[in-house]
Amino acid sequence: MAFSGTGKVWMNGKLVEWANATIHVGSHVIHYGSAVFEGARCYKTPKGSRFFRLDAHIRRLFDSARVYRMEPPYDQGAVTRAVIDTVQANGLEACYIRPLVYRGYHELGVNPLQCPVDVAVLVWEWGAYLGPEALELGVEACVSSWARSAPNTFPAMAKSAANYANSALIKMEAVLGGYSEGIALDPSGHVSEGSGQNIFLVRDELLYTPPVSASVLPGITRDSVITLAQDLGLQVREQNIPREMLYLADEVFFTGTAAEVTPIRSIDKIQVGAGRRGPVTTALQRAFFDYVNGVVPDRHGWLTESRTPHLAV
Ligand SMILES: Cc1ncc(COP(=O)(O)O)c(C=O)c1O
Fold first, then answer.
1. Per-residue pLDDT tens over the stretch 15-71
2. Ligand 1 centre from 196 Cα, in Å?
3. Are residues 199 and 191 in contact, defined by beta-carbon separation less than 8 angstroms?
């Protein structure tokens, strides 16, 4: 979905017009992918706009920066306020939020240490990532010919821009092959994750998801879905998953801030279960959307106010 090209962007402490939110082409990040970032969401609830687990996203942003020896010139509280200010300045009731920490303009050796650490926050309206019908009907996915990164190469726990070169290979291959998404295996051939989503399988009412050691991003939606599943009395197993389990599962679904909870209806043209959203996926999707949309009480303390007074009802 193309940007509307309007609104304000927070850059190093200032809100600037969208068109002026630019950086020099000599910036380190452009050449070497030296950025870490987040993707969070703000939802419209009956009590006003609410951020979903913003604290967890900001914490992961700083964790990612730490792995890459980046010290943002703002602390977690200041970046949280920057997110709130940016959403407020753009007057959005519900939006996607992209905080970014990147190596800026100074010199272009591979060593980034002398380059400034710059911070930006973009927000925009972004509906269902894989299309609105995907949430109900599910998507067609394939197993990618590209694997996720091996341990001790690109750290999967850090949400680094560089990791998304791998994601883009997975996504392009899938889309050009007529699928909505690709599912990557880890270097040992176990199921890892989608190009920008974690993955869950259901078999005999047990829920399976790959462990963090299977080259996955420790997703905040993944963590939330595990908690919501336990709330529903479902057992969740974080364990290595052989590829063929994808074809034998009763249900499979993606989770992520962008994709939320999206069923998968076929993998490599093999129908998943009955070929439509299954009962466990439906229950978890409902639990997730009821939670983020403020339909049920915030029993886990995951929703925080956007402090946008004119949005409060
Ligand atoms: C590679 C990858 N895995 C998993 C996820 C899901 O993470 P989260 O639920 O925190 O958005 C994302 C999205 O950020 C992602 O890009």
1. 999 999 999 999 999 999 999 999 999 999 999 999 999 999 999 999 999 999 999
2. 5
3. yes
Helices (H), 125-196: 134-137, 163-176
- Ligand 1 centre distance from Cα of residue 159 (Å): 8
Q: Is 182 helix (H, G, I), strand (E, B) or coil?
A: strand
- Which of 54, 129, 198 most suits a substitution to test ligand 1, by most atoms within 8 Å of the C-beta? 198
Q: How far apart are the C-alpha atoms of 85 and 264, rounded to whole Å?
A: 36
Phi, psi torsion values for 40, nearest 5 degrees: -125, 175
Query: Which residue among 181, 200, 257, 292 is best mutated to probe the pocket of ligand 1, counting the most ligand atoms within 8 A of its Cβ?
Result: 257
Residue 189, class by beta-carbon neighbours within 10 Å (0-12 exposed, 13-18 middle, 19+ buried)?
A: exposed
Give the torsion through C-alpha atoms of 175, 1, 260, 81, to 10 deg.
Answer: 140
